[in-house]
Design a protein that fits this description.
Length: 229
């Protein structure tokens, strides 16, 4: 029985909270206590302290407030990933700021989350990020799509490299994916490509499966991040 308990403990996702608002840290810590697979191992009220604590504790996931008092959350994420590239980063914010969104993606964060997210969804995002997925709040995607700067992460891939990485997508599926990135519905995709709505839906389902994501929003995010558009 003791071995089983140790196995359960070893599977916990180890999290550090970096937020200059104590009430927010207390709230997040209390929230995660109800999930047996998540453990808050450290917390910090400043960016510089948070960077050091990540170095010391080597967590699986760092949840970082975008607006810290000493240095920006984006800069904290950048320094953490420079020193600890295996740490997954979730940016947490109350505001939809285009510059923070774009800079966060450029430094390589794994998720950009608004603070009005519910507890179960945040736990889901944390687990997904820990497994290597990327997640953006649905309210963030239109800002990325409409940004004149585009999404140009440091490790950006061009369309040819994206296609080489996802050669199992057909040419038609690439056309559909680009329209998904543009925010088109299945009906609108069907009208543009002159196919049935049923066929349009089937293409989207295939794309989601082939890109190993959970929904069309994540498919759009992955396409944007990896440079298909």
């Amino acid at each position: 029985m003791q071995v089983q308990n140790n196995n359960i403990q070893s599977k916990k996702i180890r999290v550090i909270l970096i937020d200059d608002h104590k009430l927010m840290r207390v709230g997040l810590k209390s929230l995660f206590e109800k999930f047996p697979d998540i453990s808050v191992i450290a917390e910090s009220e400043s960016g510089k302290e948070g960077i050091e604590k990540v170095r010391v504790h080597n967590p699986d996931v760092a949840i970082i407030d975008v607006g810290l008092n000493d240095i920006s959350g984006v800069e904290v994420a950048k320094r953490i990933l420079s020193n600890n590239p295996n740490v997954k980063i979730i940016m947490l914010t109350s505001h939809l700021d285009e510059n923070n969104i774009m800079e966060s993606l450029r430094v390589g964060v794994n998720a950009y989350v608004l603070k009005d997210i519910n507890s179960d969804m945040l736990a889901m995002v944390l687990r997904s990020v820990n497994d290597g997925a990327m997640w953006l709040d649905p309210k963030v995607v239109p800002i990325i799509r409409e940004s004149t700067g585009g999404v140009i992460p440091a490790k950006n891939k061009n369309r040819a490299n994206f296609k080489a990485s996802h050669a199992n997508l057909t040419e038609r599926e690439y056309e559909v994916l680009k329209l998904v990135v543009d925010g088109k519905s299945n009906y609108e995709i069907a009208q543009i490509l002159k196919i049935s709505e049923h066929t349009s839906k089937a293409h989207v389902c295939n794309i989601i499966q082939k890109l190993v994501v959970d929904d069309r929003t994540q498919a759009a995010v992955k396409a944007l991040k990896e440079g298909i558009v």
